[in-house]
Structures are given as C-alpha cells and as structure tokens.
Known about the structure:
mainly alpha; 2 strands
Amino acid sequence: MFAAMFGSVEQGIIYAIMALGVYLTFRVLDFPDLTVDGSFVTGAATAATMIVLGYHPILATLAAIVVGFIAGCITGLLHTKGNINPLLAGIIMMIGLYSVNLRIMGLSNENATSLPNVPLLNSETIFTQFLKFWEPLGIDSTLNNLLSGLGVSTLPKTWGILFIMIILTAALKLVVDWFLKTEVGLAIRATGDNKRMIRSFSANTDHLIILGVGLSNALVALAGALIAQYSKYSDATMGIGMITVGLASVIIGEAIFGTKSIMRTTFAVVIGAIIYRIVLALALRIQFLDASDMKLITAIIVILALIVPQMIEKQKDKKRKAKRLQAKI
C-alpha cells in the first residue's frame, strides 16, 4: 500500500508540471486548449529520441520544452491569425501532432520513417544520472530504516526521484508565480479576463495569447519529457486524456484550497495533481476495477470535482440565507 502511494506521489509531482501548463490556458487565458494531448507526447518523443541518439538528457529535455513551446505558438497563431475557434484550433493541432510525434520517434531508427514508441530501458536519463550522485549519500537507507522501524514492510527503492522532482516542481511553481506578476504576466491575465479592456491600453492581445499558449505547452512538453524518462519509454498514445488529467488536477486543487491569490492557486494545482494520482491509485485497488478503467475513473473524478463544490456552496448559501432570515425575525 505504501509503495503504491509513494509511486502515485512521485508521478503526481511530475504531472503537476503539466497541470500548471493547463492552468495557464484554461484559468489564466480562458483558452480551452486541447493541444495538450499532442504536445505532451511531443515532449516525450523529442526527449526519448534525442537520448537514444546519444544527446545529453538535460539537452534532450530542454529541446522538448522548445518543441512544446513551438507547438503551442502554432495553436495560438491558428486562433489569432487564422481566426479559428480556440477549441477547434487545439483539436487541429492535436491531430496534426500525432503524425509529427510518430515522425520524431522514427528519427531514432535509421530503418524506419515513423515509430509508435521509443524504449529507454538501457539509456541514461536525468533520473539515472541524478541517482548516481544521490545513492552514495546514504539517505535512502536512513529513511527506509526509519520506516521499517515504524512497521512499513514495502519500502521504495530510492527517494532520490521524489526529492529532485519536489525541488524542480517547486522551482517551476515559483517561476510561474513570478511571471504572472510581471508586466507581461499581468497583461496575459488581463487578456483572459477582458480582451476589450486590455486592447484599450494598446496591448497586442494576439501576441499575448500566442505567448501564453506557447508557455503552457512548453510546461506540458516538459512534463511529457520527464514522464518518458521516468517510465523509460515514449509512446504515441501516452498523451490520450492528458487534458482531462490536467483539468482534474486544477479543479480538485481549487476546490480544496481556493483561488484567493496566484501563489495559493498554483500551490492548489500542484497538490491537486498529487491528490488526483493518489485517488486514482486507490480506485484501481478496488477489486472489480481494472487498469483499463483508468479513463472512466478520471472522468468520474472530474465530474465529482465539478459537482461536489457546487453542492457544498449551495448548502452554504442556504445556511447564510437562513441566518439572515433569523436575524430579521
């Protein structure tokens, strides 16, 4: 049980980066961007292919960020310059990226034009390189001895991945917080709230939308690159339903922690991603559910995350009205 929860937290922290990207488009820009399902795989495919070709994992990960940013910018261009509905622009880009991703993974093999997956079983990744530095420190044995003393039987192999991902995700969260408080960030937030108002201040909303969607997909592609290196493979279908996962993380986090400030909201998104993975792991432990039911479970979690807060708010409104009525009487 502990091992399953530990793995869920590890994955949740990585997926939190993707959830931050979804937050930028859906909440900040009010842009329903479905490019996410494609750009997630683009990041994974780019990183995996470059690693197989012998490039350094950090360079491969940075390249994945750049490619994800370009994909997001193209979606923004389709909407702003092509006057295509944002939802349709995202769908078009998502469909187009499927073939692009196959082509990218095909570069890893001289005898293939396109490939559906790229294995990284014997390749160096960011995580394997970090663990070479982490393992001699002896932190794993110390923590595992402590847990075994508390009666925990199934212990994780290493705490290093969790440690590095906490630092990386926290750093990205702080960068997003800082960016949204800059002049450009405030302009992007204003664009999402009211385009006409920000245009009256001579701001170019088209450029702001393109930049915002590009940054969002850069974060999504980074998450895809890290997941590929974490799971040791890249696959053309690994991005299916990612937009739902991102939305679930955002909605769950906001429902629990609220949205009173940017720092609080981004924190809520990160924790929401972790909670989502834990809930998913717990749901899959139910006997009559199978791994093939994951998408159905995700849909149910999103529905509950949308409906339950509304029901709670209605109950609070009823109580407030009842108190006002008693006060008048």
